[in-house]
Amino acid sequence: MSSDMDALALAADRLEGRSDAVDRYPTPHDLARELDPRVVLTPALSLLDQNLIDAAEGRCRRLIWTMPPQEGKSQRVSRTFPAWLLARDPDKRIAIASYELGTARRWGRAIRNDIAANPDKFGLRIRRDTASAAEWQIQDHAGGVYSVGVQGALTGRPVDVLIIDDPIKDRAQAESLVFRERVWDFWTDTARTRFGPDTVVIVVLTRWHEDDLAGRLLAQDVRGEWRHINVPAQADHDPNQGQTDPLGRAPGEYLISARGRTAKDWEETRQDVGSRTWTSLYQGRPSPTTGDVWRRQWWRRYGTPLWSQDADRPDAYRVEECDQVIMSWDMAFKDTRSSDYVVGQVWARKGADVYLLDQIRKRLSFTDTLAAFEAMVKRWPGATAKLVEDKANGTAVISTLKSKVPGIIAVTPTESKYARATAVSPVLEAGNVFLPEKAVELFDPEELIDEAAAFPNAAHDDMVDATSQALAYLLLDQTGAHAWIAHYRAKAEGTTTEPEPQANEEPPADDASPDLDPYAAMSEDPAVIRKRMRDARFRGQP
């Protein structure tokens, strides 16, 4: 009897032109909890609710929401929000699009079933003559839901609210330019033509590629109408640059999970999926396959360890048959566990080739930085020079350790990060820089490859800085420059033996540095050649 009275009261409210749902369910979560008491509310979903309410009430007409997979974003946006919206305004014409019709249709079916099974909560009924999962309408109203795949059509269907939920299915589709163009064509030729002046668009997705739908919409947002909220699995903002986390987390703090994932679970996920997938799917910052400065295919690999365990010191490594072993350090900005990473690397040079042996990349306080520095020195006693960029905490590290640790060299950069990276790019392009294969790695080299591929647009560039510092010292500024010049002389004479390309790797181009004439190395002073290599192509770059 009570439910009948509630339904009558809701019907009366409809006749009076207002919806009781506004008072009963002020947020989408309130409705979700009413339909299923097991639904949880996390800070991320609470923030999502606020943005959905802004969209419903006209304060935001274009919303892009990016978030790690399996954290409740699709349930909230593609199931609860349309039902909540129709409860408030049953004349809203809603379209849901996904990478295929079947996925979009499942959301349409779920919304329809929620409304049909709960007339006391919604005060709505589904028209019997348009009640399919893919297309249905509210009885006595214009509103309803139409489901479509990105290869489908919306012809003849005006849209008040468009929800695009995961227009890309997987990595294969993301890497396909043909499919990305298909998604973009759906937006420009199909979806956009259905809009009225007040149409609301919500794009919710996991990022796979920098050129996905979200990437293109943001790149072409000349009117500044898109609101983009990216919630990374781990807060990676930089307070020193005025950046903030959308959830107010401290740098390094993990997402409170709707599925109950702990910090340990997030760490294991990060290790299992690899750096590239973690950066794109979980952090929402996909990096390009081909970097702007250092391309992925330029990195070479080595599969035989260049080190052995020290017989007298089990915790130390001995490097053999190398001409030079150094360390390169990029320090954080503050004596706090801020967003800045401390990066320490160990490099070895054999002739004109350099090999990254070890790397540490952590958020460290000043005290922990000193401990990490000394631990790395003990681990690699053969590293003679220890390069430390003389800025941020680097200055204090140099001052504190120079009397205890021999070989610390202060490096004062005189050019921009971009100029320093481009100055050593011919070294990578020529195939002279090697990273370890998985069987012999002491760290994850994919982190460096991904950061380099996204440079200079990545959230962080600490590893790039440390690497360009090491390469400049080993191959452009020191005796290694003579080896590299000799390498080019021999290459010009056709006497070098090039390393075999790895699987799925493009060999370095023979014309790696068009401004470097290998024949000139026979007659010119090496210092002049080094200066030309570093400056001629890249001086004046931003």
UniProtKB/TrEMBL annotation:
Signal peptide: none
Region of interest: Disordered: 492-542
Entry annotated with the keyword DNA repair: no
Keywords of this entry: Viral release from host cell
Compositional bias of kind Low complexity: 495-506
Pfam families (UniProt xref): Terminase_6C, Terminase_6N
All copies of domain Terminase large subunit gp17-like C-terminal, residue ranges: 328-473
Listed name of the protein: Phage terminase large subunit
UniProt gene name: terL
